[in-house]
């Protein structure tokens, strides 16, 4: 019984464990510099970081959900975020920099399309839109836009490996404790 209680507490703790959130606030926010590959364990193709105060009244200002910076597609085109070994993409906040536009997403694994967003998401310059996809087991996330102009992304959210390990440990502990517990009414064979 003690093992079951411990396992249940581990399971509850892992369910409430926070996801890893990348806010880009530790970057300088110089719009001419791309986000360096390896930042936060990812490769960032077509993305830079920009300060919230770079263009007052723009979607960059509205789109910075975290403290100081947001990522943005610096050339206005498609952006790719990848990690060798894969990752799970929970979601992120998106805001258009200059005009209303649509975003579409694809999740790839080993060069094979695994997920595609069921529809385009309309983003504007005034309100960050949380786009939660909950995709697992991808190694590349592609973000397409309809306008050829910039958008801001903040609070890029992926599960922390520690959270996944904790959940696995909790499930293993529950399975082990169930195996050791005798069935109700079962006794020694006559």
UniProtKB/TrEMBL annotation:
Q: Does the keyword Signal apply?
A: yes
Renumbered to this chain, the signal peptide range is 1-19
The lineage's top-level taxon is Bacteria
> What Pfam families does the record tag this protein with?
PEP-CTERM (PF07589)
Q: Which organism is it from?
A: Massilia agri
All residue ranges annotated as the Ice-binding protein C-terminal domain in the record: 157-179
Listed A to Z, the keywords are:
Signal
Name of the protein in question: PEP-CTERM sorting domain-containing protein
């Amino acid at each position: 019984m003690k093992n079951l209680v411990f396992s249940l507490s581990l399971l509850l703790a892992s369910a409430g464990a926070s996801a890893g959130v990348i806010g880009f606030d530790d970057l300088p926010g110089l719009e001419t510099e791309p986000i360096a590959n390896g930042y936060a364990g990812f490769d960032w193709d077509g993305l830079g970081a920009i300060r919230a105060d770079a263009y007052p009244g723009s979607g960059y200002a509205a789109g910075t959900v975290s403290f100081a910076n947001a990522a943005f597609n610096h050339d206005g085109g498609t952006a790719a975020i990848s990690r060798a070994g894969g990752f799970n993409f929970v979601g992120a906040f998106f805001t258009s920099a200059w005009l209303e536009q649509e975003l579409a997403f694809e999740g790839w694994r080993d060069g094979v399309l695994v997920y595609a967003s069921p529809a385009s998401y309309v983003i504007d310059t005034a309100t960050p839109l949380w786009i939660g996809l909950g995709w697992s087991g991808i190694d590349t996330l592609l973000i397409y836009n309809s306008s050829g102009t910039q958008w801001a992304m903040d609070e890029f959210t992926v599960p922390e490996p520690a959270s996944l390990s904790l959940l696995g440990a909790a499930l293993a502990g529950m399975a082990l404790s169930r195996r050791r517990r005798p069935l109700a009414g079962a006794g020694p064979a006559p």
